[in-house]
Write a structure and sequence with these properties.
The protein is 69% helix and 3% strand. The chain is an all-alpha fold and 295 residues long. A hairpin with a 2-residue loop joins strand 1 and strand 2. The longest helix is centred in the N-terminal third of the chain and has 31 residues. Keywords: Amino-acid transport, Cell membrane, Membrane, Transmembrane, Transmembrane helix, Transport. This is Branched-chain amino acid transport system permease protein.
């Protein structure tokens, strides 16, 4: 039981990172009806920014400055590359975000180089005791920071003017425009928030193990998370990320013992297996909105 609980905590920690990335995907999708494939590049850029700034400003200030920097980059991307595409087919805009992802990663890889860069985090692989459990400090940090950010994000959407405007635009853009909501500002804010969250996630991805040019692949695990939780559900994004993290962690710990016939490294594909199972049972995700078409 002790080992199982430690495995679950590890999964919740990693799942918190997937949840932050999934929130970025969902925020942009709810505002624009486009899945932004630029999130992996923004995550990588955020981690690299932290690795450079941490030696100058200290780690915690570097995280904040990097998150704001990547939010600004995301705003610029939306204004220059995405805003002119308003009214174009969704598929076209999604392909453009793929191109943005490639361009940003190529630029960021130049700052990474061939060696692994450390983000300068204070946790590393240090462990702490929670009663009889021994867990890594970074997993607890991931859980705590994600909980705080999710709480603030939900409060923003529920209690602030801009948050209510984003909810209105997500529900019906034409009605929101008629009520004086600037849909363009909503688009920009959604990209800025997604960039901010991606940078925080990138920092956590690099804790202990550092970052390299292929680190961006980790962000792809947020895709199963948003499908599991529901593409248009913020709460579903959080739940989906945590579910994916726990499932992956359980397979890493126990698959070799209980299901060796699945082969080595099955944990890597386990999030996508969960995604397929959920799609078969609930095509709109666990918390997604079922679309009703009238004919």
């Amino acid at each position: 039981m002790k080992g199982l609980l430690e495995t679950v905590i590890r999964g919740l920690g990693n799942g918190s990172v997937y949840a932050l990335l999934a929130l970025g995907f969902v925020i942009i999708y709810k505002a624009t009806r486009v899945i932004s494939f630029a999130q992996p590049a923004l995550m990588l850029a955020g981690a690299v920014a932290v690795s450079y700034l941490a030696g100058v400003t200290g780690f915690y200030l570097a995280v904040l400055l990097s998150a704001l920097l990547i939010a600004g980059v995301a705003l610029a991307i939306e204004r220059v590359a995405i805003r002119p595409m308003v009214g174009r087919p969704v598929f076209v805009v999604a392909i453009i975000t793929l191109g943005i992802d490639v361009v940003v990663r190529v630029v960021v890889n130049g700052f990474i180089g061939r060696d692994v860069r450390q983000v300068g985090d204070p946790w590393g692989f240090t462990q702490v005791s929670l009663g009889p459990l021994v867990v890594q400090s970074r997993w607890l940090a991931m859980l705590l920071v994600t909980a705080v950010l999710v709480t603030l994000l939900f409060a923003f959407f529920r209690h602030t003017r801009y948050g209510l405007a984003m909810r209105a635009a997500a529900f019906d853009q034409e009605t929101a425009l008629a009520q004086g909501v600037s849909v363009g500002a909503v688009f920009a804010l959604s990209w800025g928030l997604a960039g901010f969250l991606a940078a925080i996630a990138g920092m956590f991805v690099g804790t202990g193990q550092g970052i390299e040019q292929m680190t961006w692949v980790i962000a792809l695990k947020a895709l199963p998370a948003i499908i599991v939780g529901g593409l248009d559900s913020l709460g579903g994004a959080v739940a989906g990320g945590l579910i994916v993290g726990v499932v992956e962690s359980l397979f890493q710990s126990y698959q070799g013992e209980f299901a060796p016939w699945l082969g080595q490294n099955f944990a890597i594909v386990s999030p996508y297996v969960v995604m397929l199972i959920v799609l078969l049972v609930k095509p709109y995700g666990l918390f997604g909105t079922r679309e009703v078409e009238r004919v």
